[in-house]
Amino acid sequence: MHYQEYTPSTDLIPYLDCYWTLRTGTLPMASPRRVIPDICTDVIFNLGEEVQIWNGKTHRLKPGKPYLIGTMTTFQDMLLPAGANLAGIRFKPFGLSTLLGIRQQGMANQIQELDPTTFPWDYGFFQPSGIEPEPQADWKKINTLLRRHLHGKDNTLINNLVGTLLDIRGQIAVRELASQYHTTERQLERKFGEHLGVPLKEICNLIRFQYTYQLISHRERQQSLLDIAFRAGYYDHAHLTRHFKRYAGHLPSRIG
Q1: What pLDDT digit, counting tens, does each position of 67-112 carry?
Q2: Which intervals hold domain HTH araC/xylS-type (predicted)?
Q3: Domain with 6 in it: what CATH number?
Q4: Half-sphere exposure of 39 (CA within 13 A, CB side)
Q5: N or C: which end of the chain has fewer CB within 10 A?
Q6: pLDDT level of residue 137 (50, 70, 90 thresholds)
């Protein structure tokens, strides 16, 4: 299995986290892969064999189709057969709605096949399954397509807001964030609900979980999970464990 990320052009970085590809090649049997939630949204092109995703119910990504993966608030399990070949565009929070006008109200944890009228792209520039791809050339074409949507876009306020959440690792009350940006809690919650399909408080929880996951992944032997829990703003070890079971599907002690 081979997963690789590619950096978007500089002017698209306010809207995109990365481009990525995932290929299995020849496998003796289907391979499982667990994906933990972040605060991004993915548009996935299936260029190979059918891929199954389970997140409480089973979804099938059919060959030759593009899909929108809504903001995740729990883990997803992928079952990747031999010949799986996925290419994805990972949008930062508000990137999809700001750049392409696609809002995600009601789309949390949903996987939706994209209608050509909603996402009118001919993605035949990707190499067909079974042919050695040239991803750098493909992503340059994607850059060109996305840059056509940049005219008149200003993501400064949203970037600053999300940047604040990331800087403080999600450890802030909604009312405090609203006061900092001279708005109301209701306006903030409505903006997050319409554009991301997820409440602001949940976004804060996801940011804190991702930060904690990285701390545990790179912890030194003398560091206890309780020490990390306090550092990441959890009340106690039990609070940390509940979040891990919800978002990762396993205990924090299984990392590393």
Answers
A1: 999 999 999 999 999 999 999 999 999 999 888 888 899 899 999 9
A2: 155-256
A3: 2.60.120.10
A4: 28
A5: C
A6: low
Whole-number average pLDDT of the chain: 86
Work out the end-to-end distance of the chain between its first and last CA atoms, rounded to an integer number of angstroms.
20
Q: Is the dihedral of CA 98, 100, 105, 110 positive or negative?
A: negative
Amino acid at 153: K
Q: How far apart are CA 183 and CA 238, in angstroms?
A: 34
Residue at which a domain ends, from 105, 122, 147: 147
Q: Distance between CA atoms of 108 and 55, rounded to whole angstroms?
A: 11
Q: Of 147, 167, 197, at which residue does a domain stop?
A: 147
201 and 81 fall within a common domain: no
pLDDT at 128: 44
CB 33 within 8 A of CB 77: yes
Q: Which two tokens stand for residue 28?
A: 């003796």
What is the number of domains present in the chain? 2
